[in-house]
Amino acid sequence: MRNTTTKRIGSILILLLTALAPVAAQVLDQPVAVVRLYETVNIGQREMREQERLLERQLGRDLTAEDRRDLLEAQINEILITQAAAERNVRVNEEELQQAVAQQRASVGQPISDAQFRQLVQQQMGLSWEEYREQVRERLIQEKFIMEEQRSVLEGVQAPSERDIRAFYDENATRFTNPAMVRFRHVFVDTRNLSEERVAEKRERAQELLRRLQRGDANFEELMDASMDDASYSAGDFGYLMRQNQEERNLLGQDFIESVFALEEGEVSDGLLESNVGFHIVQVTNSRQARVLGLNDPVLPGQSTTVRDQVRNYLLSTQQQRAFQQALQEVVEDLRAQAEAEGDLTVYEENLDW
C-alpha cells in the first residue's frame, strides 16, 4: 500500500462529488482489482477507463499512469469505507441530505435557482439529479463513519490562540483589504426586458423625476418617499458598490460604476446615469478608499464579522481539515490491513497499463 495515495488524488477523490461510474462493474472484462471487506466487488478495466475519461474532463488534462494508479487506490479505499459503514448501519436522513445539497449549491459562488443547479450538475458532472443525490448521500455516510471511528482525533482539535491569530495576520496583512467602495442611494427606473419603445418611455419618466429635482419641486428624500406610492419608479439605499467587483460590473456596467465613483460624498448626479438595468439618479452617501484592514476592523462595512473572526475561522477550519485527513488515513489503513490479511484485496497491475 502506498501512503501517497490519500495524500494526493486519492485523499481528494475518496469523498469528493465526482462523476464516477458505480463501483460494481456490470461487465467483467479485464479485471483491475477485486475488493472484499464484507462483500466482493470487481473493478473492471472498462469501468476504470470510463472513470478516467470523466475525471480527465473535470481536471482538464490527461491522467498519467501514476494518476491512474492513485485513482484505483482511491476507489478501493472508497469501497472499503462504504462497506464498513454499511456494516455499522450508518445512515443519512433526508434533512441532512438536503442541507448538504444546499451547501453545494451555495458553493457555486453566485445565487442560482434549483433548476440552474440541476442543469449545472448534469453539464459538469454528467449525472442525473438522482445519481447526484445518491453520491452526496454516500459521501455523507462515509464522513459519518470516519467521524465515528476517529472521534477522539477530530474532537481533539484546539481553537487557535490569540498568538496564532496575530502571527497569521502579521504574515498576511496585505491580504486583508477593503477595495475602494462607495455607498449610494438612488431613484431608479427599471428597463430590464423591455422593448426599445418602452425603454424610451422609461427614459422620459426618469428625466421627469430629474427635472423635478433640479427645479427644486422636490428634494431627494421627497422623491424617495413618493416612490412608495408610485409604481413607475423605485428608490432606496443601494448599499456599498465595489469598484473591482466583477458581479456588480456585469450587472450594472463599467460606465455606470465609474460615473458613481466620480461623485463626491453627498453629491447628487447632475444627469441621469444609465446602467445595464435602468436609469438612476444617484446620491453618494459614503466614499471609502482602498485600505489594509486591522484585526478589529469589520471585513465589510456594516458587517459584524471582523478580520480577527475571519482569521480564527480560517485557522480552525484548516486544523479540522488536517485532523480529518489524519482520521481518513488511519481508517483506510485499518480497513486495508483487514482486507489484505484475509486475502480479499487483489490488484492486477498488468491490466492498469493502457
Topology:
Elements: H1 9-13, E1 31-36, E2 40-44, H2 45-59, H3 65-87, H4 94-106, H5 114-125, H6 129-149, H7 151-155, H8 162-172, E3 177-178, E4 181-190, H9 196-215, H10 220-226, E5 234-242, H11 246-252, H12 254-261, E6 273-274, E7 278-288, E8 291-292, H13 307-341, E9 345-347
Helix pairs in contact: 3-6, 3-13, 4-6, 8-13
Q: How many strands, what sense, and barrel or not for the largest sheet?
A: 4 strands, antiparallel
Radius of gyration: 28 Å
What's the average pLDDT?
Answer: 89
Using DSSP, what is the number of strands?
Answer: 9
Could you name the key traits of this structure?
354 residues; alpha+beta; Triger factor/SurA peptide-binding fold; Chitinase A, domain 3; 2 domains; 4-stranded antiparallel sheet; 3-stranded antiparallel sheet; 13 helices; 14% strand; elongated
Give structural notes.
Helices cover 51% and strands 14% of the residues. The chain contains 13 helices and nine strands. The protein has 354 residues and is of the alpha+beta class. The protein has a four-stranded antiparallel sheet, sandwiched between helices. The protein has a three-stranded antiparallel sheet with strand order 2-1-9. The chain has two domains: 190 residues, Triger factor/SurA peptide-binding fold (Orthogonal Bundle); 110 residues, Chitinase A, domain 3 (Roll), CATH 3.10.50. The relative contact order is 0.14. The protein starts with 8 loop residues before the first helix and ends in a 7-residue tail after the last strand. Helix 4 packs across helix 6 and helix 8 packs across helix 13.
